[in-house]
Amino acid sequence: MDMNLLVFQEPRGVMRILHLIFSICAFATISGYTGTIYYTCYQQTAADKFGYPFLIALERNFVNQSGIIANANSSTANSQPSENIVCPIQVVGDFSSDAKFFVTTGVLAMLYSLAIIYVYTKLDNMYKSNSKLPLYDFLITVIFGVLWLSSSAAWANGLTGLKSATNPSLKPQVCKNCTAISSSFSTLNISVIFGFLNFFLWAADLWFIYKETSWFQGNQMQSTEGI
């Protein structure tokens, strides 16, 4: 049960380390994100925060009480609003399914990377002597490649909807000089990049794992016997 650190000098070992690192980076950029929507309306300011899993249901009502009429019949000259113009701002959107799909893929990829690194370092002799283990490793890597591609595409689409929802269009005839601006999405943009980068890394690793399978080794033996 001695540790075989030489595996990290091989491409399959190096790739698993990269899988582990970039999987963590991918889901951490989403789960740790907190955004803010800043409102400015009728000389009033406010802010609402939103974050993972991006199930957003925010509502603000700003009241314009600029028109004031003095009560001339009153000795104390009471003032009362002549009109109350309400500017309703709603920020609604459910992007949780795309975000959870992406984060789940990242967490599962991290766990599998840890597990297969343990197998490479502690059980490498069994891995190489048992023809089924490399095949399972290859098939699971294919599955994670597909998951990273589909979850990254889904989250990229969800992020586009999130950006649109958190920058609501206000009615100019009612909400005069009112704005609702969200904070930067740079972290979430990076998460999409990490997602597609993970797909590339898992897809690229297929060749190195394929070389460990009986499919490749059987073809090599047939080629050698043919010579």
Automatic annotation (TrEMBL):
InterPro entries: Marvel (IPR008253), Synaptophysin/porin (IPR001285). It comes from the Eukaryota. Keywords: Glycoprotein, Membrane, Transmembrane, Transmembrane helix. The keyword Glycoprotein applies. It is a multi-pass membrane protein. Pfam families: MARVEL. Its main location: membrane. It is found in: Membrane. The keyword Mitochondrion does not apply. Residues 7-214 form the MARVEL domain. The chain crosses the membrane at residues 20-39, 101-121, 133-156, 190-210. One of its GO terms (cellular component) is synaptic vesicle membrane. Belongs to the synaptophysin/synaptobrevin family. This is MARVEL domain-containing protein. It comes from Phaedon cochleariae.
